[in-house]
Structures are given as C-alpha cells and as structure tokens.
Design goal:
CATH superfamily of the largest domain: Crotonobetainyl-coa:carnitine coa-transferase, domain 1
Radius of gyration: 25 Å
Number of helices: 19
Shape: elongated
Distance between the termini: 20 Å
Structural class: alpha/beta
CATH architecture of the largest domain: 3-Layer(aba) Sandwich
Largest sheet: 6 strands, parallel
Strand content: 15-25%
Number of strands: 13
Oligomer: single chain
CATH topology of the largest domain: Rossmann fold
C-alpha cells in the first residue's frame, strides 16, 4: 500500500504502540487524513492483541480489526528485547508522533522513558492513552471501557428509571476517547508548527476524563443543584414530549419536540391545538412535569400507523422523528449510500468489507480509506527497509532472535 494517503496530514509519520480500541482508534483517525501510521505489535510468539480475539469473526478473521486498524501499515517488534528496543528508537527518530496505551511507567521500565524518546527524536509528540491518566490514585487501574463508562457517569444514567444501570451495547468509551486523542495530537502538532524550536510534549489522555467531558452537564448539575442526573429510559431528560415508540408494524421510532415551535406544530398535526394553551403544556418546564401524559398521547398516535408513515408525516409537519435502525437498515439507507457514509473497502480476505466513511470531510484536502487493517507484521520487510534501510540478512537475524 502507499505509505501516506491524501489529506491534511499527508507526510506525518506516526508510530502506534497500542492495543484494543482507544489508542488504535485515535491513530486510525490520523491515518484517515493522510498520516503514515505504523502499527507496532508483538511477534506472534510473544502474544497477540486482545482485539483479535473479540467477536465478530468470519472464517477466523477478526472483523473489528479490519476497521479499527484501517489505513495503517503493520510491523512486529518485541520492545522487551535489547535488539527490539534499539530498533524501536531508530523508528522513533524518524517519527513525529508516538501513540501508546500501556499502564503508566511501563515504557520507562523497558528503558523507553520520555527523556530517552526525546533524545532519539527531539520534539516528538507522545500520546499516552490510559483509563485514568498518568497520575492520581487510580493511575494503575486497568483501562477497560466498562470501568471508565461506570466511573464517568454514563452507565448510571443509562436504563429505565426504575431499573438497574445499563452499559451500552458497544464500548463507546473507547472511540470517544480516541477522538480526544486525535484532537490532542493535532493540537500539539499545531503548537509545534507555530513554535518549531519548542520541546516535545506528552498528551495525557484519560479515557474516564473524556467521558466526563462528553457528559459535562452531570458535574455542573451536581455542583449547583446537589442532584445526581438520573436514569430516564427513553424519555428525554431535557424536553417533552419525546421518546421511543412502537409503530403499528412493530418497528420503532424516536420522536422529540425539542422546542416550543415544534411542540406547537405537533399539536396542530394531532388536531389538538387546545394543548398549546393548556397550563400543563404551555412551557417546556411544565411539559417536563407532565411528560407522561404527553408521551401517552404520542405513543397512541404512533401505534396506529406504520413506521414509514409516522416518520414521513412527522417530518413533513416539522416534528423531529427518525426510525430506530438496526445495522442492516443502516447499510440499506439511500442517504448513507449517497454520501458514502458506509463505504466498501478492498480487503485481502473477503474481497471488500463495508465500514464507516471519513468523518469529517475536507473540501480542499480530502482524506481517503486506502486499506483495511492488516495482519500483524504484514509490512515488516517494507517498513524496515524503507524507514531503516535494513538488509535481508539483518531482517533474517532479527527474526531468528525473536525481535520481530
């Protein structure tokens, strides 16, 4: 594959020393916009990335790996071996960014502390991805998505009001954190572009703190009102009427009256203009206090119609509504097809696979998806020759020692 893609980050060299989702997601975002990302994995004899064991699989191949590690080249290297450490520092010397997600202090124990890294490449940007940050009492806690979703408040506010807290059906905390990681790298690179002689810097990404930022209303509400934001099921915690309702054909639809004007249009659609002047429904504050009555009216209206009719009628009336899609419906949606929001990418194992497209889109410097995630070590010869000029004999020796 081409070493670098099109996009605003074309020519940027990134070493990615991370596993599972958050760190790889951040690096993949950089690769989407042109960066040459080299993913460093352990040799097969030394272990495997846990992501490769996670479902779904097809013919024994991990499908999520193909998406999370798209647009990257892959090498294997055992940093715990002296030969591996020396080789890694030579790669660092040719990189602008290092992404790592080990527990704090792990690289230091391997002789790869920040002073050593910056000696190899002054100005190196180091993105450190952990569950709880580089310091603090929880710094050595494991960084699994369910932990920082629970600590960060997402799990507590998810679920029915009278039911237990619920985790989402996918570890969303990981990619959310990955977005912050990519933003941190780009911000650090911008600063360096403005100040070329500035020293390198670490970007300390706590995935729990990323969750706190996403759910920023929780802290201010608790601080100023002394209230913990509570679970509300499919009711909207901020506006009414709103919820997820079952249509006559068994499909589900989400509807929300997010402003006064939308609520008034909703009343007109139902032929209930008197509700606009009803003191119980005159303001959003009042509607929130009587949301169960309003949601019952909306549920009955939805239940009498098939989902397509519900959505088209509400949208034509200027009321926000959408069908609740499963993944197969997403793939079939004409809007997503027209925008290539889900796109087919050539794949060595399956011919092509579908995955999300580029987000966001640049008018002058568009990115591209060049490849699915490669097998670990697929680009050993290519990268070690291209970046370090190693010979066939040197590569053979490194394989013999288990360094690559």
């Amino acid at each position: 594959m081409r070493a670098t893609g099109r996009g605003p980050l074309a020519g940027l060299r990134v070493l990615e020393l991370s596993t599972v989702i958050a760190g790889p997601f951040a690096a993949s975002l950089l690769a989407d916009f042109g960066a040459d990302v080299i993913k460093v994995s352990l040799p097969a004899s030394a272990g495997d990335d846990p992501l490769r064991a996670m479902p779904p699989h097809k013919d024994g191949r991990p499908l999520i790996w193909k998406v999370t590690n798209r647009n990257k080249r892959s090498i294997t290297l055992d940093l715990r071996k002296p030969e591996g450490r020396r080789l890694f520092l030579r790669l660092v010397a040719r990189s602008a960014v290092l992404v790592e997600n080990f527990r704090p202090g792990t690289l230091d124990r391997w002789g790869l502390d920040k002073a050593t890294l910056w000696q190899a490449r002054p100005g190196l940007t180091i993105l450190r991805v952990t569950g709880f940050g580089q310091d603090g009492p929880y710094r050595n806690h494991p960084g699994f998505a369910r932990l920082f979703e629970a600590y960060g408040g997402l799990t507590y506010i998810t679920g029915e009001a009278d039911g237990p807290p619920l985790h989402p059906g996918y570890p969303v905390g990981d990619p959310i954190g990955g977005v912050f990681g990519a933003l941190g790298v780009v911000a650090a690179l911008y600063h360096r572009a403005q100040h070329p002689d500035a020293p390198g810097q670490e970007v300390d990404l706590s995935l729990t703190e990323a969750m706190l930022k996403i759910l920023e209303v929780l802290a201010v509400k608790a601080d100023q009102l002394g209230e913990a934001h509570a679970r509300s099921g499919n009711e909207n915690a901020f506006v009414a009427p709103a919820g997820v309702f079952r249509a006559a054909d068994g499909h589900w639809v989400t509807v929300t009256c997010a402003s006064q004007s939308i609520f008034e249009r909703f009343c007109g659609l139902l032929g209930r203009p008197e509700m606009i002047g009803d003191a119980r429904f005159a303001t959003n504050t009042a509607r929130m206090q009587h949301r169960h009555e309003l949601n019952a009216v909306l549920a009955a209206w939805v239940a009498a119609r098939p989902v397509d009719d519900v959505v088209s009628t509400l949208m034509e009336a200027g009321v926000s509504a959408a069908p609740v899609y499963d993944a197969l419906q997403i793939l079939a949606d004409p809007h997503f097809a027209a925008r290539a929001a889900i796109t087919s990418v050539p794949d060595a194992d399956f011919g092509s696979v579908k995955m999300p497209g580029l987000v966001p889109r640049f008018s002058a410097t568009p990115g591209e998806i060049r490849s699915t995630g490669p097998e670990p070590g697929a680009h050993n010869d290519e990268v070690y020759r291209e970046w370090l000029g190693l010979s066939d004999d040197e590569l053979a020796q490194l394989r013999a020692t288990g360094a690559i």
